[in-house]
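Project standup — Tuesday

K.O.: blocked on the structure for the chain from last sprint. Re-posting the sequence here as requested.
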Amino acid sequence: MATTTVSAGLLRRSMVGRALGIFWGQSRTVAGVLVWMGLVVVVAFVVVAVLAPWIAPYEPNFSVQSGATPPSSQHVFGTNPIGQDMFSRVVWGARVPLAVVAISSILSLAIGAPLGLVSGYYGGLLDRFLVLVMDSIYAFPGLLLAVVVAAVLGQGIVNVSLVIALVYIPTYFRVIRNHVASVKEELFVEASDALALPRMMVLTRYVLPPVAQSIPVIFSVSAADAILTQAGLSFLGLGLPVDIPDWGLDVSRAVQRGFQTNWWSAVFPGLAIISLTTALAFISEGLNDILNPLLRRRDTR
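H.V.: unblocked you, prediction finished:
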């Protein structure tokens, strides 16, 4: 019992304090630099989204010209074929992917992670049923599934977020379940079962802490994919209403109305999408290298 209690204490400490200690100790490595670079870019986009009314020189839906004009000192990102200032639309458009990512990632985490924990630990018929359902969802290409569901639910930030959450629930489930299935074979978990401790106590105190280290990596990866999925839905006209500034919608408009004659209408929103997704990819790659003990051992050789 004493050994089990000590193991639980160590695992709980590793979930927060030790993880932060590892991250701080690795902050000057390549992985740490990747995380910091990604965080700086993501925070910059958040600041731009929050301060959009003060940063954007024009209302995003206001036509300041009679048509598309190239970048100039008056309109640094040019104007689109409708005459709207592209810099203002890019600034206001930062709110959409951040809102969708926040809602969809939290929903998919809140549903997929607990199901993965329960399925991996308890096993049996429940595990088989959940695996069958999640594998069926996972078998569909993510964007195709999102298109089908979005066509049913309709446009709107909430509906798009629900669609994307549905797409990424199986990702959380599969990773968490497989990790739990591995951890529950450890000696300290078997000792807890031998002592007839309540299963929920064993699950939350002994199994969850080591498994939780993979959640930040999954979260950042799914967040980057969510931005691309949301932009893809908007490009296809299944995202948000046209009166809401949206990067994917702006790219779609530019392509439909002649990319060669108003390339700036697609390039600047596209660069914003690439910058934000790349920043999240940097965070996920760095966190994976930092939190994965096998990769840490390989770096120390």
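K.O.: great, moving the ticket to review. Residues 2-300 form a domain with the MetI-like fold fold (CATH 1.10.3720.10). The chain has one domain: 2-300.
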